[in-house]
Amino acid sequence: MANPVESEVSRRGVLVGGTATAMIGVLPSGQGQAQPASSDAVRQGFEVSFEVNGKPYSLQLDTRTTLLDALREHIHLTGSKKGCDHGQCGACTVIVNGVRINSCLTLAVMHQDDRITTIEGLGTPEQLHPMQAAFIKHDGYQCGYCTPGQICSAVAVLDEIKAGIPSHVSADLTSPPELTNVEMRERMSGNICRCGAYSNIAEAIAEAAGSKT
Amino acid sequence: MKFDTAAEANPIDRMRVVGRAHPRIDGPLKTTGRAAYAYEHHDVVTNPAYGVIVGSAIGKGRIARIDLTVAERAPGVIAVVTAENAGKLGKGKHNTAKLLGGPDIDHYHQAVAVVVATTFEQATAAAALVRVEYAQAEGRFDLDEALKTAPLAKDPNSPEKQGPPESRTGDFEQAFAQAPVKLDELYTTPDQSHSMMEPHASLAAWNGEELTIWTSNQMIDWGRTDLAITLGIPKENVRFVSPYVGGGFGCKLFLRSDAVMAALGAKAAGRPVKVALPRPFVPNSTTHRPATRQRIRIGATADGNILAIAHESGSGNLPDGQPETATNQTRLLYAGANRLTSMRLAVLDLPEGNAMRAPGEAPGLMALEIAMDELAEKLGMDPVELRVRNDTQVDPEKPERPFSERNLVGCLREGAERFGWQRRNSSPGAVRDGNWLVGMGMAVAFRNNMNIPSGARVRLGQDGRVTVETDMTDIGTGSYTIIAQTAAEMMGVDIENVLVRLGDSAFPISSGSGGQFGANSSTSGVYAACVKLREAVAQRLGFNSADATFTHGQVLGGNRSAKLIDAVRDGELVAEDKIEWGGLDKSYQQSTFGAHFVEAAVDGFTGEIRVRRMLAVCAAGRILNPLTARSQVIGAMTMGVGAALMEELAVDKRRGFFVNHDLAGYEVPVHADIPHQEVIFLDEADDKVSPMKAKGVAELGICGVAAAVANAVYNATGVRVRDYPVTLDKHLNSLPAVS
Q1: CB distance B198–A213 less than 8 Å?
Q2: What value of ipTM does the predicted structure carry?
Q3: For residue A145, which of B246, B421, B564, B614 is within the disulfide window of CB 3.0 to 4.6 Å?
Q4: Are residues B336 and B271 part of one domain?
């Protein structure tokens, strides 16, 4: 009986091989490795420059390196977290050119000349950003792993509302959205907190926004 | 210190620091991204290689052939470790399945190889080039089918572990047969995933024969012991470090493959290696809460007194696994002279089932507390009153054994009052708010208290600073903060003068974090060490330690006082002790109690369910820090909403795995799902449980929540769903007409 699992692995192998597929047919398997090796050298040496938390960085990166891994493994800014690596949890949220994104879903080499703000750039333990201070006051976190993403998202959400960008729950798309509890919960729903601090996070954001829930 | 008689008045009773809502002392690090989790120790290991695990693609069978030639030649690859070249491995005491599969495969996504390469990208690409040929075997993946022939299981929690697998009091069958009002229903709960935000991760570094592992684990000593057993090396050669843990909920109680494969990979590569489980590996490669099938029968008098109660539960697990103890609470929660509980355990070849937040009680109360709601309706009685009517102040199986403290009735009364329960319409499906059907539901929360031995070392430095060292972990529970509060209270210093160091096997062995035993056990260990340090201080300063008062950096006794810091003028003082537990839990049943109240709305056209309001009232001993304790409870309530409305690992019964194994497929509550939540703690200090007079709340908080939601949904719609999660497809066709 054919094994569908094995054939799936093989198919993935072909996809990973990419441009090397044509070679595989004509070369003995041992020599077939020359092609991936040289393409790997190209991958490793891609130069990219961007600004993180106001500081310029020039990196030589593998083209497959995500922005998240560039921050965590190459610049050693580990505040941005890897919770899923698939854009499902929001723990990796950073602010790029003023807009929040999932840094696991974007390659670092796509960010030439971009301005990136991570949790480390918002504030320090000695000098907290108002949103960070509000999270501490309202205990808007427990294990702390989703927290940097929540805070980066929350900071960006307030800017989005200020900029008049509507959401799924905005009743009226033409008038400016308001800082309501429902608006904030809708906009924050891409950031999962499995410890379940949502009720406290809502209060922290409301305080930082200067509004009432 | 042995705790074997009820606690007398002690310095904790002052509650100058303990019992106050102090913000987390680790907050500034966590909120600024400076707290370093397992994969993030760039400060101590500068140039690690990256390991990526290959998981089994079958649920049951064996590896016929594993071909590494392509993977080993892939760019950047340093080593590939499989069962063929890993050497002889043991199996940890706490593991059901071995952590490196091959040639035999015990479950889907069991690790079969780790590929170590210079970069993460290279390791990930090369891991996809490992060719595994499997010989698939017939597996047992269908719980309902397997339960048909499953034997009764012994209760692993029971003191009479060796006793009969059924627990019987009186004559259930006869009393049930004669009861004027009867309920007999089946309830099902699905497999659930912990899905903590940080997947398991480890960084391993060998120095000769000595291994240091930075990891993410709730139980330092269990992990260290099991890693040593697995690798076949002396425990003394392993240092196990876990200062920050990105959530656990039971999934990180045990050693998992990330730690083993990082250690093996580092050995093979000759350099430090770090390994994180990819998110899609978490449900199938680690542990989950097992599904249950529960039958509940209750017989009552017409005025609501329970005459007979039976709770039978079935679950499955790998060979040598444990049952999900869903009948735990039913042995203790309600009065009734005739009782029967039992569990069946089927052998399944699905991934390992194990403890998830309130193992046993969480799924058990999901069923029992719907059953009580149904019984109340049959009796025409208010659900709150039915619970009050059947309260018991003694262990119903052993009436000579009282509860140490039991204020369940207080929780029910206070909750009903605060929630506006009297406004509930007892006729289901009768309240409308536009297109929404609106209902209220409630359920009881119950979770036993457990005490675990716990040690700590306390140091009074010459700078006047108190340092606490214990291998206790903080998994979001607030351990750092409550331990600092305990030491500050005991030594009479400000909390700012206390430094807490956790999660390192170089420190005294603690209770660890689990079973909601961590807060009470670990602070009691710190209490014991502080008592010793106070004695040392008193001796140096010439006080009688029994009479001395420590306050505001001073030591007072008789009619004189001295500065605390004077005790260390000639050198720091260090004291170490541990708390051990006598038999008070045998003479007194020690448990925690609560009541959950929920208002839910159901869209009359689509069946969509929204939770509108939530309240929990808890009676759980002294609350060490109302801020962090409240967070534990709201977090548990949130997970309870998930259990009620969305969480379910879907089983592929043909191939034997959980299909929805990531955060896109396995849905957990998000911001939009959770309204403002209220929590009230009743004043209580339980002197039978510990010198801290505290119990835990982290698991109590989830107990009963799902049933309260399900009962609220029923009250809104009049459609009873007994098969969790309560998703809209299960009631859509039966909803009452909206207009």
Answers
A1: no
A2: 0.97
A3: B246
A4: no
